[in-house]
Amino acid sequence: MRAGDLARLLELRPRSLEGRAARLASCYTIEDLRQLARRRVPGAMFDFIEGAADDEIAAQRNLDAFAGVVLTPRQMRGNGEVDLRTELLGSSSDLPLAIAPTGLNGLLYPDGEVEIARAAAAAGIPYVAPAMGSSTLEAIAAASSGPRWFQIYLWRDRALMQELMSRARTAGYSALVITVDTRVAGSRPRDLANGLTIPPRLAWAGVVDAIRHPSWTLGFLGAEMPDFANVEARADGQSTVEYVGSQFDAGANWDRVAEIIAEWGGPAIVKGVLTPADARHAAESGAAAVLVSNHGGRQFSRCPATLDVLPAIVEELRGEVEVYLDSGIRQGTDIVAALALGASACLIGRAPLFGLAAGGRAGVARALEILRDDLRRSLVLLGVSDLKEVSGELIGETPAGQARGRGSGETHAA
Ligand SMILES: Cc1cc2nc3c(=O)[nH]c(=O)nc-3n(C[C@H](O)[C@H](O)[C@H](O)COP(=O)(O)O)c2cc1C
Fold first, then answer.
1. Is the preceding omega at residue 199 within 30 degrees of 0, hence cis?
2. If you measure from the C-alpha of residue 152 to the centroid of ligand 1, how many angstroms do you get, rounded to a whole number?
């Protein structure tokens, strides 16, 4: 065999692909990006992404639910092409996927939210800008031409909520995501143990760890320390973390959600729904979509896995409003499972954050590319050529012998 043949056989990468690009190119899964992220950022920052509430059981349950899904391929169908485009809230998206709101991305990479928004725009999928971002919603809007939604919490200060909604409208955000699972902040032991403060103040151990992660540390030289940029000006003497902490409204109810949706005046998504009854409340409050989410297991450790509660919620809503799902999506097959059980789309939180921490915008782009290729390949292997064909028929018996989901023949509400 000649050397050239051997190189082709081994698909050797050209020497020019060096440094960060080479490291990202040799990530083939979200797990690979996670490992790269773990090496690149200090432990406290990695824990901020990966950590979850209390004993972290809900976060693990999300992953286990997807791992337990059996999808059964059907042979000699389709021509190898799959159209992955879909409509979300009346606008087209290149994938049945959007990026979930995640706050304080500036801790992981300078201008983190802006970098993620740009990668989402390049992939043609919606990006949800977080109220608690380290970049302002205006800075994100100015940097990204893609579809953008804005996320808010139910905060006590109504004037603050009105101000944020008005700014989001002016900046061209097309939908509002209302997070309803944060009546109080969840307890995340990793962050507590690491003494994660906003803005970050490094203890001695943190300084040593920062020195051991120079590519993360160098990114912050000359940059401002990340803070909650959208609300910084309102903190008025308090630290922003105290101010934001005091804002969560533990007494908010569905009437308040309806009021906010009416004030917004456009499509709204209620994020954090886990029961059919709450899905019904969200729909009756005027939501155009519900997001079945347990916040990636970051709020309450005994939550059900979102995949397990999805079928009953889809059944309750019967196509009246769109149903999305997040919490635990790490592979294309996870997206297939959620669509097969009735979701119109999935959102991802940690997957793009591992990419961001591993390599900025290019890392997020790699995460999206991995998921897109995985989704396409999985659908071809399953004998599907159109997202509308993704149905409960694909779901097989689980190893425990229990059929998951809604039985056969139902098509997801694309
Ligand atoms: C670091 C981090 C920060 C987050 N910040 C927010 C936030 O500001 N607002 C919100 O509604 N959800 C937030 N979430 C939850 C995500 O929107 C999403 O529900 C969750 O990450 C989905 O689970 P996954 O990470 O397993 O994909 C955050 C998640 C992470 C990992």
1. yes
2. 13
Q: Which residues line ligand 1 (CB under 6 A)?
A: 48-49, 62, 100-103, 130, 132, 151, 179, 271, 293, 295-296, 298, 326-329, 348-351, 353
Report yes or no: 383 and 361 within 8 Å, Cβ to Cβ: no
Output the CA 159–ligand 1 centroid distance in Å: 25
3-state per-residue secondary structure call for the chain: CCHHHHHHHHCCCCCCCCHHHHHHHCCCCHHHHHHHHHHHCCHHHHHHHHCCCCCCHHHHHHHHHHHCCCECCCCCCCCCCCECCEEECCEEECCCEEECCCCCHHHCCCCHHHHHHHHHHHHCCCEEECCCCCCCHHHHHHHCCCCEEEEEECECCHHHHHHHHHHHHHCCCCEEEEECCCCCCCCCHHHHHHCCCCCCCCCHHHHHHHHCCHHHHHCCCCCCCCCCCCCHHHCCCCCHHHHHHHHECCCCCHHHHHHHHHHHCCCEEEEEECCHHHHHHHHHCCCCEEEECCHHHCCCCCCCCHHHHHHHHHHHHCCCCEEEECCCCCCHHHHHHHHHCCCCEEEECHHHHHHHHHHHHHHHHHHHHHHHHHHHHHHHHHCCCEHHHCEHHHECECCCCCECCCCCCCECCC
> Residues 236-275: pLDDT tens digits?
767 777 788 888 999 999 999 999 999 999 999 999 999 9
Does the pTM surpass 0.70? The reply is yes
Instruction: Using a pLDDT cut of 90, give the percent of the chain over it.
Output: 76
Strands 148-153 and 322-325: unpaired
